[in-house]
User: Which sequence fits this backbone?
């Protein structure tokens, strides 16, 4: 999952940055405006998809760990760390999705009602920064969860003495 997460996060951040570049181009010439709007909508969807994949990963691995603990009679202590990892990743991912969605919403308001674009720019830059920080938080939680799963697998697959 770690490699998949790195690839997906790279795509997410690339989409957000490309949208920002198109937005800068749209501020120079109106012919880029439609491309910026389309890229913004797609980047918002991409961001939500990446963070939903993280949600799904933690939910699925928590269920797997619960099953392993009950079937293989492992210590219940294996259940607590996964809750901690999920508690780190979920609020961060929700914040990242909210920030990008807010940037998109303010962008639509900026275009539709001709408000000053500085609000959209500030929120968009903040959304990109938040996504970078959240990517680091999620990466650390995913790595820790992977080590926990590796430990459980080592315990399950250890030769019986």
Assistant:
């Amino acid at each position: 999952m770690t490699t998949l997460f790195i690839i997906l996060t790279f795509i997410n951040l690339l989409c957000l940055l490309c949208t920002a570049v198109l937005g800068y181009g749209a501020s120079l010439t109106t012919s880029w405006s439609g491309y910026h709007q389309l890229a913004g909508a797609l980047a918002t969807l991409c961001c939500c998809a990446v963070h939903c994949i993280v949600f799904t990963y933690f939910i699925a691995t928590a269920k797997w760990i619960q099953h392993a603990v009950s079937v293989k009679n492992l210590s219940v202590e294996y259940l607590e760390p996964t809750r901690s990892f999920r508690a780190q990743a979920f609020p961060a991912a929700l914040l990242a999705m909210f920030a990008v969605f807010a940037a998109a919403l303010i962008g639509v308001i900026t275009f539709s009602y001709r408000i000053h674009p500085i609000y959209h720019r500030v929120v968009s830059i903040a959304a990109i920064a938040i996504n970078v920080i959240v990517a680091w938080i999620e990466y650390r939680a995913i790595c820790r969860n992977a080590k926990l799963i590796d430990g459980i697998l080592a315990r399950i697959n250890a030769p019986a003495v």
Notes: Residues 118-157 form the longest helix (40 residues).
